[in-house]
Structure formats: C-alpha cells, structure tokens
C-alpha cells in the first residue's frame, strides 16, 4: 500500500472523526452531564437527516441552512422529552429499567415511522458544492466531507464556549457534579437539565443534516451509531468535551483505516470492539483519572 | 501475634485529592472504637476501604492475620466484617423480613435454626417483627436505621462498622441504638462506631480515633482525646 | 404452590394446549402459535435478567440469532464435509447428521449462553447502563460477522429445506416444531419461577435493588450476574435454534431484527416484571396482537403498535398489567409508595 493511500485514509478518518464528535456531543451532554442514557440519540440524528432531506427536496433549502433551522424544533422536542422523562422516571428513581426501555421504545418508534413514510431506500440531499473535491497534491478533500466536518468543529467549539463561559452553561456542568449545590444558588436543577437535554437533542438535529450531506441515509443506519457514540463518550471521559473530540478523531481514524485496508463491511465491528475495549480497559476514559 | 484488625498505613486518593493519608489504626478483639471527625474527613472512606468498596493505593489491611488485599466486598462480609451504610440502603422491592433473609442466605453461618425463625429472632431484637411483611418504603427513619443495622448483624459479624447509624434521630432513639450496639459488644462483636453525636460516642466507646482531613490526629482514651487541644481546634476551627 | 406441582402443571398445560391445537386442526394456527410461544420463551428469558436482576439486555436479536445461525452452520456442515473433510470424518458426520432439533436447541443454547457469559464478563463490573449499551452494540457486530461469513450465506441468507414430516411418528414438521417450542416455553417458565423462590432469586433481587448493599450482605454479585446472563442468553439462543427450520430461509437482516429486542422488553414491561406471570401474560397478549395486526393492517403498523405500547406502559403503567390487580392482593404496607420501581 502506498503512502498516499495511507495519508488519504488518515485524512478521511480525521474528517469523519470531526463529524462523529458532532454526533457524540449530544450524548456527552445527556449521558455525561445529566446521566441520562439517551440511546435514542442516534435515532434523533437520523430524524434530522430526513427533515433536512424533506426541506432540501421539497423546498430546495440548503442542507446546512436547514441543519441550523432544525435546531429550534429539535430543542423544543428535547425539552418535551426531558419533561416526560423527569415525571415518569427520574422523579421516582426509576431511570434504570424503565428509563432505558423508554428511550429504546422511542428509538424504535422513530425508526419504524421513518420506514413507514420513506421506505428503506437510501435518500440524499443536493447542493452545488457537495460534488466538488479539493485536491492538495495527492490529498483528496471532498467537500461532501470537508464542509460538514468544519461545521461539526464549529458546533463543538460553540457548545464548549457556551458551557465554559455562560452562567447557564456552568450551571449545566455544576448540575452534573452536585445537583444539590445548585438548589443552594436558587437555580432549579430541573430547568437546567431541561435546557441541557434540549441542547443535546438540538445538536442531534444539526448532526443529522450534516450526516445526510456526507452519505445517503436510510432509517436503520442510526443503530450503527449507538456503539460509536457511546464508545466515544466513554473513552472521552463521560462529559469531557475535549476528551470527546480526541476520542472521536481516534475512532474516525481507526475506522477509516479498517475500511480502507479490510473493506467497509467490517467498519461497524470496529466501534463495538472499541466500545468493549474501552469499557474493559479504560472505563474512566482516555483522559480519566 | 498481631492485632484483630490492623489498618496499616493506608492512603486513598480520589484523582488528585487525598482522602486518607497514611492512616494506621489497630483494633483489638472486643474493643468499642469511636471514629469521629468533621464532615469530609474520611470516616466513610475508612469503612469503604475496610469493607472492600475501595482499595487503598498504599498500605495494607489485615483482619485476624489475613491480608484483605484483593478480597471482594462479599468475601470480606463472609470473613466476618459487616458494615452499615451512612445513607440506609434497604432492598426496596423486598419486605423487611426478606431484607434480613438475604444476608442470612448468603453470609449466615448459623445453620442450626430454620431461616424463618432466624429472621424472626433478628427482627425481634430491633422490634421490627411486627413489620416483617412491610416494604421498606413504609418504614420511619429510625426503623430504616434499625433495618440497616440488623441486616449487617444477620451476617454474624466479628467486626461491625456502623457508619452514622444515628444521624437524624431523636434523643431517645439514639439511646435505643446505643443500647443495641452495647448489647452486641457484650455478645463479643468488635465495633467501630462512626458518629457525629458526641454524647452517643462518649457513652459507647472505650477508645476514640479522630480523623481530620484524611489524617489521624488522635487515638486513645475518649476522655483524654476529647480534651486534646488538636482535636478541640479541629472541631472548633470549623 | 410447591415447585414439583407447579412444574407438572406447566407441562400439563403445554400438552393440553398442543392437544387443543391438534383438535382444531387449523394449520395457520400452528404457524402463528409457534411465533407467539417463541415469544413466551424470549420474554421469560429476558425477564430473568431484566426483571429479576435489573440488567437491561438490548441484544435479544443477537442471542436469538446465535441459536438460529448455529443451526444453519450445522445444517450446512453435512454437505460441506462431503467435499472438504477427510472421508472418514465425513462418514461419521453423515451418520449423525442431520442432528435432531432438540440437540440443535441445546447447542444453540450453549453457544448463546457462552456469549452472554463473555459479554457479562467484560461489562458487568460496570454500571448496568453500560451493559445495556454493550448488548445493543453486540447485535450490530454479530450481524456484521454473519454478513461477512459466506459459509452461512452472508447477506444473501441461507435456505434450509424442511422435511414435510419428522421421523418421529411421522408427525407434521410444523406440529413437531410447535410442540418443541411449547415444551421449551414450559421449561423456561419453570426455570423462571424456580429462580424466583430460590436463594439465587433473592440474590438477584438484592442486586436489582442495590448492588453495594447486596455485596455487603455477602452476595457474590458478579458471579450471580454472570450466571443470570448466561441462563437468560441460553434460553434466547434455544428459542432461536429451531427458527431456520420454521421459516425455511434465514438472512441476517430479519434474524437480527430489532423486533426481537423490542418484543423481549415490551412483553415483560407490559405484563409486569416482578415474576414469571408478567412476561407470559405480556407475550401472549402482545404476541397475538402482533399476529392479528400484521394480518389485518400491515406488518409495519404492528411494529409501530408494539413501540407505542411499550412507551405508553413504561410511562403510564410501570408495574405492567399485573399492577392493575395489586389492589386485589392482600395489602402490603408500602406497596404504593415504592411504585414498582426497581
Ligand atoms: N467516590 C468518591 N469519589 C471522589 N471523592 C470522594 C469519593 N468518596 C468520598 N470522596 C471524598 O473524600 C472525602 C472524604 O469523604 P468521606 O465520605 O469519607 O467523609 P466522612 O468523614 O464520612 O464525612 P461525613 O461526616 O460527611 O460522612 C470527601 O471530601 C469526599 O468528597
Ligand atoms: Mg461519612
């Protein structure tokens, strides 16, 4: 194998890794900070992809723009689901069995509804710039991948800034460390958690639009992302955003190398091995104590 | 011949934070040790290291000449080290009687009597026998504390670690629990009592160990220890 | 009721059901009944880990598929050995193959039990939610393996020719499979109920309620969880082993379908997770409902129905259908306050 081949695979891996970070950041917030194992997160991502598809094919809106627009309804949806979650489970200490079953049911419903509406064919979006490729010497940078990756990094930086500089962002971090401390500051933990969960689902909406720019989408591919996002989240150290980014890049590169050298059919197995290895060897994450 | 329990220079860290710093305590069989210290001084961490929830980074713990390193929590329970939790942790879906049944089935050694009978006897000792069929959610605070204690006693321990078994109880309830622990001590159980209520500690202990910020600052006769200026300043300095 | 009497009763009920089906003599009934009874096994198996021990398994499809693909692999071995193995080995295989279904069931159970054990060994030391996530990912990875495994047909799938009758009394093959599945269901229920009343069962309940407290009470939590995962996984694999003979054609997408995982969770949650009766009730109602809905409306609609019912029950009726009858049982102090949360 040539060096060029290797470098191209590495570059593609880094780019896809940035995108994985965008998919995972929502999980880092909901699971890492709020301890809510929202396994339906990838299903929300796919729902975002289909929404972007509809806006693109129906009204001709640019997928990037629709990704940004989608954050608003997805945010509201997230707030709604947090309220349901709180009333039905968290309040009663029933997160374990029932909470997991709830999100699993949600994931299943989203998938089935998408199949009922759109069928199992792959769908994609169109935009002029998506078909061109930048060439830097032997390095190929398809815009189809490059642009979503850059937006993913922007999303990442924006959320990181929000969490570390704003009052509400810091409250989200505080709630993950000590829920009772917030009540002392007369901040209601529940509202902070709702905000955080809303943000996490909003990020899924945007990530969905990015996904369908990168590759054609069908309803069940969300499942492949479950192993991926949780592996990244855990390896990144459960709610450490820099850790999440590093872990996402790492997985992106490993997957890209695997599919370049062994064929794409094996890629889903990589994330699982990654997940199991993480859980067994470094359950506190890469940067963990 | 070494002591019954030897905590030998253990250090426990959480990330960069040192919760226990080179703690050495040795306890003889039958002693009644009071372990006190301000909030966050590391008392529960000692219990967790002894009972196998945490493993200390440095140092060793020996119980009846056996090194406890590598032994899991349930194995230590079966060796005879029982603990109660600071926040009661009843088995919520099991009745009061079943809560006691679990340790009897898994750690009890008295095979002479039927399990049901042993359950009843144990619950009678803390006056919970009338509520054998209740679920823990229906119990009062003091009853939960008693259930927590009796579940530990059901494992037939030689060493009992009682972590704040009286927090939040009224004066008469405290007396009741102290009397129960004294009775256990008379039956030959070595007890380490962790407590903030000084009257209870003073009436129970025949030895007092004081932790401040993860360090042992005093160890000895309770009457002497409480007058120790270091201990006084640690408490008053809060 | 004492265990031997209960076991006998379970077997008698299963036998009576089979006799009744024979008397009615409708072939579709056998065909649909097989699926429903298969879900009785799956739901009961899931609940042994989920309901009794509190660990959520999202990988039912994977465990089921391990059983099914073990059968496929063994079925293909006969032809394969003729061309690829030394004649002596091939001859031996020709004599003992095709393996009788009960043997295949045992092999499938063994394999998925081992997978459960391995999974558990890697993830059960951590919080339960990690186990749940890992099982979800397990399904994806096993599917990837099978898709890439040409011997069992890869993504194209494999056809299994089912003889019309069995050598056993010349019984109709579907009748035979149905009878086996009924027997397996009875056995699963007996195992579940046996666990409930045993030392093992109390240990599992203590783990479900509070693992630290369970360890402090002398319960070897990891060992019990591993045993529980292995039993639960084995029963799921056993349910999957006869499946290739039932459908005649297996391919990864449908064998690993999420529908098994959803049903495995929904049925106990809808019936009630506290004991053996809940999963039975849930699988009979939801299983029949699905059969009816997929015939009268569409198969997608029946899937949607299950998803919606699952979510509705966990939100609105966390104790399941059996929770509706709590009022009729002798009052236990504190029943309402706990709200059935495990
Ligand atoms: N699992 C843990 N992870 C991180 N830090 C911990 C953990 N457990 C305890 N600590 C820290 O170790 C220190 C000692 O805690 P410990 O619970 O032993 O105190 P304590 O003396 O029992 O206090 P209290 O009287 O409030 O019960 C505290 O600062 C606490 O925050
Ligand atoms: Mg404490």
Brief write-up:
By secondary structure, chain B is of the alpha/beta class. Chain B has 9 helices and 10 strands. In chain B, the strands form 2 sheets. A 6-stranded mixed β-sheet of chain B has the order 6-7-8-3-9-10, sandwiched between helices.
Task: Spell out the blueprint of helices and strands.
The complex is a heterotrimer of chains A (289), B (238) and C (342).
Chain A: H1 3-33, H2 41-59, H3 63-88, H4 95-118, E1 133-136, E2 139-142, H5 143-165, H6 167-177, H7 179-184, H8 189-214, H9 222-235, H10 241-262, H11 267-281
Antiparallel strand pairs in A: 1-2
Chain B: E1 5-14, E2 17-27, E3 32-36, H1 43-51, E4 58-63, E5 66-67, H2 73-79, E6 81-84, H3 96-107, H4 115-125, H5 141-153, E7 159-163, H6 171-186, E8 190-194, H7 198-204, E9 207-212, E10 215-220, H8 222-227, H9 229-236
Parallel strand pairs in B: 3-8, 3-9, 6-7, 7-8
Antiparallel strand pairs in B: 1-2, 1-4, 4-5, 9-10
Chain C: H1 3-24, H2 27-53, H3 60-84, H4 87-96, H5 101-123, H6 128-147, E1 158-159, H7 173-196, H8 199-209, H9 211-216, H10 221-240, H11 243-247, E2 249-250, H12 252-255, H13 258-271, H14 277-296, H15 299-316, H16 320-323, H17 335-338
Antiparallel strand pairs in C: 1-2
The complex binds adenosine-5'-triphosphate and magnesium ion (MG).
Task: Please outline the major beta sheet of chain B.
Answer: 6 strands, mixed
* Secondary structural class of chain B: alpha/beta
Kindly provide the radius of gyration of chain B, computed on alpha-carbon positions and rounded to a whole number of angstroms.
Answer: 18 Å
| Strand neighbour order, sheet with most strands of chain C | 1-2
Q: Tell me the series of helices and strands of chain B, N- to C-terminal.
A: EEEHEEHEHHHEHEHEEHH
Strand order across the largest sheet of chain B: 6-7-8-3-9-10
Helix count, DSSP H or I runs of 4 or more residues of chain C: 17
Contiguous low-pLDDT stretches of chain C (5 residues minimum) are: 336-342
- Sum up the overall morphology of chain C in one term: globular
């Amino acid at each position: 194998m040539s060096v060029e081949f290797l470098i191209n695979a590495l570059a593609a891996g880094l780019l896809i890794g940035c995108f994985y970070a965008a998919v995972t950041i929502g999980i880092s917030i909901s699971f890492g900070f709020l301890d809510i194992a929202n396994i339906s997160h990838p299903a929300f991502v796919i729902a975002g992809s289909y929404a972007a598809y509809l806006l693109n094919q129906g009204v001709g809106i640019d997928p990037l723009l629709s990704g940004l627009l989608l954050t608003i309804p997805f945010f509201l949806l997230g707030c709604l689901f947090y309220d349901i979650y709180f009333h039905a489970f968290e309040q009663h200490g029933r997160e374990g069995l029932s909470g997991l079953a709830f999100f699993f049911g949600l994931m299943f419903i989203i998938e089935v509804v998408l199949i009922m509406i759109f069928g199992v064919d792959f769908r994609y979006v169109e935009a002029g710039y998506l078909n061109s490729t930048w060439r830097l010497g032997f390095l190929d940078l398809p815009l189809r991948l490059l642009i979503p990756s850059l937006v993913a990094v922007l999303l990442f930086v924006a959320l990181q800034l929000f969490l570390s500089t704003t009052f509400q962002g810091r409250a989200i971090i505080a709630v993950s460390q000590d829920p009772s401390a917030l009540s002392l500051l007369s901040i209601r933990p529940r509202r902070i958690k709702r905000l955080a969960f809303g943000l996490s689902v909003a990020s899924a909406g945007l990530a969905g639009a990015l996904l369908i720019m990168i590759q054609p989408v069908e309803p069940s591919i969300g499942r492949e992302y479950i192993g991926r996002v949780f592996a990244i989240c855990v390896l990144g150290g459960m709610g450490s955003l820099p850790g999440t980014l590093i872990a996402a890049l790492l997985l992106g590169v490993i997957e890209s190398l695997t599919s370049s050298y062994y064929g794409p059919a094996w890629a889903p197995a990589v994330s699982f091995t990654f997940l199991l290895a993480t859980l067994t060897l470094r359950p506190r994450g890469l940067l963990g104590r | 011949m070494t002591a019954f329990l030897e905590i030998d220079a253990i250090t426990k860290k959480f990330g960069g934070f040192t919760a226990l710093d080179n703690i050495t305590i040795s306890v003889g069989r039958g002693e009644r040790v009071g372990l006190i210290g301000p909030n966050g001084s590391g008392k529960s961490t000692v219990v967790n290291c002894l009972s196998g929830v945490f493993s200390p980074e440095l140092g060793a713990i020996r119980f009846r000449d056996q090194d406890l390193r590598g032994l899991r929590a349930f194995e230590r329970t079966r060796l005879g080290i029982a603990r109660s939790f600071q926040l009661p942790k009843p088995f919520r879906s099991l009745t009061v009687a079943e809560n006691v049944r679990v340790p009897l089935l898994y750690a009890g050694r008295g095979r002479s009597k039927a399990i049901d009978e042993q359950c009843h006897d144990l619950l009678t000792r803390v006056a919970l026998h009338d509520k054998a069929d209740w679920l823990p959610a229906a119990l009062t605070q003091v009853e939960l504390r008693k259930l927590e204690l009796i579940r530990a006693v059901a494992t037939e321990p030689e060493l009992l670690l009682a972590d704040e078994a009286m927090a939040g109880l009224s004066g008469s309830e405290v007396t009741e629990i102290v009397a129960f622990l004294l009775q256990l001590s008379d039956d030959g159980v070595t007890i380490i009592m962790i407590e903030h209520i000084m009257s209870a500690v003073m009436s129970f202990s025949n030895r007092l160990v004081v932790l401040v910020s993860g360090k042992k600052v005093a160890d000895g006769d309770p009457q002497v220890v409480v007058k120790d200026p270091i201990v006084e300043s640690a408490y008053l300095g809060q | 009721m004492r265990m031997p009497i209960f076991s006998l009763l379970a077997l008698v009920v299963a036998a009576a059901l089979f006799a009744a089906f024979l008397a009615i003599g409708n072939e579709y009934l056998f065909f649909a009944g097989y699926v429903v009874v298969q879900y009785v096994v799956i739901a009961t198996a899931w609940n042994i880990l989920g309901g009794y021990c509190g660990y959520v398994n999202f990988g039912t499809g994977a465990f089921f598929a391990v059983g099914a693909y073990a059968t496929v692999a063994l079925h293909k071995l006969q032809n394969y050995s003729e061309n690829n193995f030394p004649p002596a080995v091939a001859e031996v295989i020709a004599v003992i193959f095709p393996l009788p279904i009960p043997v295949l069931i045992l092999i499938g159970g063994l394999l998925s039990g081992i997978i459960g054990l391995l999974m558990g060994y890697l993830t059960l030391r951590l919080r339960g939610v990690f186990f749940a996530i890992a099982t979800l990912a397990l399904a994806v990875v096993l599917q990837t393996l099978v898709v890439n495994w040409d011997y069992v047909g890869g993504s194209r799938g494999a056809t299994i020719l089912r003889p019309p009758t069995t050598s056993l009394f010349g019984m109709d093959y579907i009748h035979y499979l149905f009878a086996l599945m009924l027997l397996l269901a009875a056995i699963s229920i007996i195992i579940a109920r046996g666990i409930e009343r045993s030392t093992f069962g109390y240990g599992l309940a203590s783990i479900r309620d509070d693992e630290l407290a369970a360890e402090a009470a002398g319960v070897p939590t990891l060992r019990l969880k591993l045993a529980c995962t292995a039993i639960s996984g084995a029963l799921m694999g056993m349910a999957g082993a006869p499946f290739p003979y039932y459908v005649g054609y297996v391919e990864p997408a449908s064998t690993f379908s999420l529908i098994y995982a959803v049903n495995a969770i929904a049925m106990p949650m809808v019936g009630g997770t506290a004991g053996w009766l809940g999963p039975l009730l849930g699988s009979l109602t939801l299983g029949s409902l699905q059969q009816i809905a997929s015939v009268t409306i569409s198969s997608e609609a029946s899937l949607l129905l299950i998803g919606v019912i699952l979510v509705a029950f966990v939100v609105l009726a966390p104790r399941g259908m059996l929770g509706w009858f709590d009022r009729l049982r002798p009052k236990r102090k504190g029943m309402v306050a706990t709200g059935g949360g495990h």
